[in-house]
Write a structure and sequence with these properties.
The protein is about 80% helix and about 0% strand. The protein contains 1 helix and no strands. It has one helix at about 10-80. The longest helix is centred in the middle third of the chain and has 73 residues, at about 10-80.
């Protein structure tokens, strides 16, 4: 029967390889966690930007409608030559 012997230099190499792989795994985990956190933050920022964009579009559409009503009222008064009560609405809605 053959006897198994482990030399000291082989044990040191195995231990160093184990520690190196453990260190690399910890490094990869830290990088993964940082990227995951950044991805989450960017997704929330994208959602917030999308909501802000929708809000601004709605506000612009309301302002364009108000401008159209004021222009229509102004052209109607120019045609008739007088200002009719209630033809121009106030600036608040």
């Amino acid at each position: 029967m053959k006897k198994f012997t482990l030399h000291l230099d082989a044990a040191i190499v195995i231990a160093l390889l184990f520690l190196l792989t453990l260190g690399l795994n910890l490094y990869q985990y830290r990088e993964y966690k940082a990227l995951k956190d950044e991805n989450y933050r960017l997704q929330l920022q994208g959602l917030e930007d999308s909501l802000n964009l929708d809000s601004m579009r709605s506000h612009i559409e309301r302002l364009n409608g108000r401008i159209e009503r004021l222009e229509a009222a102004q052209s109607a008064t120019e045609l008739s030559g007088t200002i009719q009560p209630g033809s121009i609405q106030s600036g608040t809605e």
